[in-house]
């Protein structure tokens, strides 16, 4: 392809530009660097473009300060400059090719390109707002906090604060809910538009399933990792897709629920296959899923097929290391809550009373006296945990105190002392305590030592109770 | 942060433009015995760049230096000997105050405040001026804080 610049020179450029050097997030700067590298722009031409950008910056600083100040702090200047470059990027990215963009940068006034870029960004923002309306309509009702918070609060806040002229480049740093495909190579308004496109697709796919089934699936996920799913940073689409495919593979006619029996069946089936057979098997199953569900929207289909590749690789890897539990969620019985907790919320001591209590406790020398005082004086979990962390108990005294607690209290303490371990890769409480590394908190160390000395039955009983503890009901701090 | 350094002294061509703009002021100031040489004008630009870099500010124009000349060339405390050095001190005081008052005072108003203190309260003493302006900043912040807290209380 040949292009002409304003001086009429022919640019035989296509073979020279290395497109891998052109990052989308800083496209204009990458274009300038690349065109200088291959000799398509002279230093003077680049200087001229820089001066024009600085002129725009000067005008925008005046607008930013409402004409009251010619200077701003470096942070503000950097932000405005990034917003300018973002808009020029928007124009350049809209060109048919990098060569065309370079040609325009050389031949047109940068202020004109900037104005056209502002229009593009403005259009993206409008599209993002429309997409958000669609996302609100197909939002899932599953009680996942990060998902609800992102849709109900983070994104509206982004739209409230987002400005095309001074803030176009600012991304949505506060968004918690992670998508399956999150394109971090782009930023600002385009990132938000892309995020909403993907979120809508993920929601639309999940809408093919019964919302009660999805909620049950999420609960099963929570029970599997011994945590309340509502506060976990999980992606709903992946969990739904994974179980939908595995359900078909297991011969379950519809839905997402996979029993232990079907898990064993599936596991056996997959282990007997080689990698290419698994690949083929999954391909056929995804086709079946698409057909069964009658999914025909092209963007959803694209997304499904894109994820299928990642999914297949993951399944093959997990089959080979015998860890399919990491991807297939089996049904878990809901355990009826038949426990009572020794501690109650709302019965916390005032800080001065608590300090007095600790002083009293520290005067006692005998362990039994200390335990008796704690049992009679501490009524809330918060106070109890504060007491554990207040350096007034030592070694064996911790053990004696833990011995006085019931399994539910111990399960609550286990969730606190072993939070990260239980959350990240829970393979049973016994393995967690045997692998627990050093802790800086003394009561955590003593607690793990105490559990190590406890019998298997007790550990199993505590482990069963871990799944019952609802973080929303128990406030730890 | 490198940005102030990059932006404040971006191009030699801009420096030349700035120097020429400063030299144009001589037409008005010469009647008061104040004439900038090209070296003096360059030194003002250099000082400006260094001040902006060290204070972490960005200024894309030369309006502040021009505004300072415009407001101070009639001062009886400024003569040919101290002209450039006093202007450089004023530039530093000006940008320092912009930072310390969090950009809440406009350029024009800030120059007027500095002029008022310098001419009337401090009798042309730069040391006294700096000390008085520290007090001004302290008061300004206290009032801003009170106003903010007052608004918060109403909510």
Description:
The complex is a heterodimer of chains A (477) and B (155). Chain A has 477 residues and is mostly helical. Chain A has four domains: 3-119, no CATH class; 121-205, no CATH class; 232-326, no CATH class; 351-466, no CATH class. Chain A has helices at residues 27-37, 43-64, 74-93, 98-107, 110-137, 145-161, 164-167, 188-206, 211-225, 236-249, 260-271, 275-293, 298-320, 351-363, 367-377, 381-388, 396-403, 407-417, 419-424, 429-435, 442-453, 456-466, and strands at 3-4, 10-11, 71-73. Chain A has a two-stranded antiparallel ribbon. The termini of chain A are far apart. The model of chain A is unreliable at 1-14 (pLDDT under 50). Chain B is mainly α and 155 residues long. Chain B has one domain (3-154). Chain B is built from eight helices and one strand; from the N terminus they run ααααβαααα. The longest helix of chain B has 29 residues, at 126-154.
């Amino acid at each position: 392809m040949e292009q002409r610049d304003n001086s009429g020179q022919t640019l035989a450029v296509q073979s020279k530009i290395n497109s891998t050097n052109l990052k989308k997030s800083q496209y204009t700067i990458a274009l300038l660097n690349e065109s200088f590298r291959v000799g398509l722009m002279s230093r003077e031409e680049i200087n001229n473009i820089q001066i024009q950008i600085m002129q725009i910056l000067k005008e925008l600083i005046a607008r930013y300060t409402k004409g009251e100040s010619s200077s701003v702090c470096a942070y503000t200047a950097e932000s405005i400059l990034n917003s300018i470059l973002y808009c020029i990027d928007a124009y350049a990215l809209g060109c048919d090719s990098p060569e065309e963009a370079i040609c325009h940068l050389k031949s047109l006034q940068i202020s004109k390109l900037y104005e056209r870029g502002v229009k593009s960004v403005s259009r993206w923002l409008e599209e993002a707002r429309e997409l958000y309306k669609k996302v609100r309509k197909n939002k899932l009702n599953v009680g996942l906090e990060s998902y609800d918070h992102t849709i109900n609060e983070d994104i509206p806040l982004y739209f409230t604060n987002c400005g095309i002229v001074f803030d176009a480049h600012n991304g949505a740093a506060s968004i918690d809910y992670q998508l399956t495909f999150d394109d971090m190579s782009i930023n600002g308004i385009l990132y938000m538009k892309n995020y909403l496109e993907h979120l809508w697709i993920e929601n639309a796919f999940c809408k093919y399933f019964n919302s009660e089934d999805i909620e049950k699936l999420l609960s099963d996920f929570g029970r599997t990792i011994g945590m309340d799913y509502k506060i976990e940073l999980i992606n709903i689409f992946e969990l739904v897709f994974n179980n939908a495919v595995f359900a078909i593979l297991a011969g379950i006619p519809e839905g997402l629920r996979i029993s232990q029996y079907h898990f064993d069946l599936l596991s056996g089936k997959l282990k007997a296959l080689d990698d290419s057979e698994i690949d083929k098997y999954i391909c056929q199953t995804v086709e079946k899923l698409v057909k069964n569900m009658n999914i025909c929207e092209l963007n959803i289909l694209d997304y499904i097929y894109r994820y299928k590749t990642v999914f297949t690789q993951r399944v093959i890897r997990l089959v080979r290391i015998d860890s399919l539990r990491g991807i297939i969620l089996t049904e878990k019985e809901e355990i009826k809550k038949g426990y009572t907790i020794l501690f109650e919320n709302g019965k916390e001591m005032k800080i001065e009373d608590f300090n007095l209590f600790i002083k009293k406790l520290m005067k006692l020398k005998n362990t039994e006296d200390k335990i008796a005082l704690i049992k009679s004086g501490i009524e809330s979990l918060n106070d109890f945990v504060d007491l554990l962390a207040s350096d007034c108990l030592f070694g064996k005294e911790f053990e004696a105190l833990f011995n006085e607690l019931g399994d539910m209290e111990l399960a609550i303490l286990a969730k606190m002392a072993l939070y990260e371990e239980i959350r990240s890769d829970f393979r049973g409480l016994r393995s967690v305590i045997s692998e627990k590394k050093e802790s800086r908190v003394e009561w955590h160390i003593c607690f793990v030592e105490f559990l190590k000395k406890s019998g298997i039955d007790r550990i199993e009983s505590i482990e069963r109770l871990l799944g019952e503890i609802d973080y929303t009901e128990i406030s730890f701090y | 942060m490198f940005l102030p350094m990059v932006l404040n002294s971006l191009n030699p061509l801009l420096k030349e433009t700035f120097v020429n703009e400063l030299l144009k002021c001589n037409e008005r100031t010469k009647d008061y015995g104040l004439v900038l040489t090209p070296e003096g004008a360059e030194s003002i630009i250099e000082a400006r760049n260094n001040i902006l870099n060290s204070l972490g500010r960005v200024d894309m124009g030369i309006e502040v230096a021009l505004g300072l000349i415009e407001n101070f060339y009639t001062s009886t405390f400024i003569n040919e000997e101290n002209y450039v050095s006093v202007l450089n001190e004023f530039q530093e005081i000006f940008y320092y105050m912009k930072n310390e008052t969090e950009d809440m005072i406009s350029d024009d108003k800030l120059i007027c405040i500095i002029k008022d203190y310098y001419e009337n309260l401090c009798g042309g003493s730069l040391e006294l001026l700096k000390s008085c302006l520290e007090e001004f900043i302290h008061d300004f912040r206290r009032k801003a804080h009170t106003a903010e807290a007052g608004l918060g209380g109403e909510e």
